[in-house]
Amino acid sequence: MNKKSKILLVAALGALVAALALAGCSSGGTSSSSSSSAGKSDAGSYSLVKEGTLTVGTSPDFPPFENLEGDEYVGFDMDLGKAVAEKMGLAFAPTTIQFDGIIPAVIAGGQCDIGLSGFSIDPERAQQIDFSDAYYVDDQAVVAMKSSQFTAENVDTAVNSADVVIAVQSGTTGEDYAKENFPNATVKPYGNATDCFAALQAGEANIVCTNNAVAKNTIANSYQDAQVIKADATGEEYAIVVSKDNPELTKAVNAALAELQKDGTIDKLTQKYFG
């Protein structure tokens, strides 16, 4: 073997060793990255605030969907969230966030993985976050005190007046509904649905606009002196809120919802909470 051949052979062997070393480093990096992912779906990796846990942002003042009984989170959404987490092989961990702060929290990350709090699918919201498949359909309701001048017969005209105050939960479709249907009235936002009904009973507001299931539940359990004077078939679809930066989590949530629909769990929860 001449000198030139020896040089070429050494160079070739050196290149081979370097390539093998690079491949080893690359493989180690992929493995490390994969193991650091907090969760995995069939389609790929998704991130979680806490490994092995589905952290759920909710505003627990919207019965029968979410409410607090002592320190326990209860309601349709909370039972659904537990079932979704179980299907995903994760622990369920709800955390309280005021309703109009849940979507910003989901977008920012670090505080919760998903939002589950009676969110209606809405084009404006969909520009900021992703929605799961729908799991419930609800309508809007207009509530007044039984002793007031507002009735089912005069609701469309009497409520749409400058001297009428409508209590709504901030950031909800109830707020949008009130502004759209009663533009002459004063729409007053509150942090939660409970405060809206308290304001109605105290005379601070004349009307409450909220989702029909919530209106009926709250009246039956706490405000029997109020009544629904209008139920509008808006057909709002409820869904789970997920960050656009976490598409694999949306896929995993949808897969869980599909299983829960197929095995009858969602129907059982609907019957349990809405009859």
Task: Break the fold down into its secondary structure elements and pairings.
Elements: H1 3-36, E1 39-41, E2 44-46, E3 53-58, E4 61-62, E5 66-69, E6 72-74, H2 76-87, E7 91-96, H3 99-108, E8 114-115, H4 123-126, E9 130-131, E10 136-145, H5 155-158, E11 165-169, H6 173-181, E12 186-190, H7 193-202, E13 207-211, H8 212-221, E14 226-238, E15 241-242, H9 247-262, H10 265-274
Parallel strand pairs: 3-7, 3-8, 11-12, 11-13
Antiparallel strand pairs: 1-2, 4-5, 5-6, 8-15, 9-15, 10-13, 10-14
Describe this structure in words.
The chain has 275 residues and is an alpha/beta fold. The chain is 43% helix and 26% strand. The protein is built from ten helices and 15 strands. It has helices at 3-36, 76-87, 99-108, 123-126, 155-158, 173-181, 193-202, 212-221, 247-262, 265-274, and strands spanning 39-41, 44-46, 53-58, 61-62, 66-69, 72-74, 91-96, 114-115, 130-131, 136-145, 165-169, 186-190, 207-211, 226-238, 241-242. It has a five-stranded mixed beta sheet with strand order 7-3-8-15-9, with helices on both faces. Strands 12-11-13-10-14 form a five-stranded mixed beta sheet, sandwiched between helices. The chain is elongated. It starts with a helix and ends with a helix.
Q: Can you count the beta strands?
A: 15
Q: How does the major sheet shape up?
A: 5 strands, mixed
SSE order, one letter for each helix or strand: HEEEEEEHEHEHEEHEHEHEHEEHH
Name the structural class.
alpha/beta
Radius of gyration: 26 Å
Helix content: 40-55%
Spans of at least 5 consecutive residues whose pLDDT stays below 50 are 1-43
Mean pLDDT, as a whole number?
87
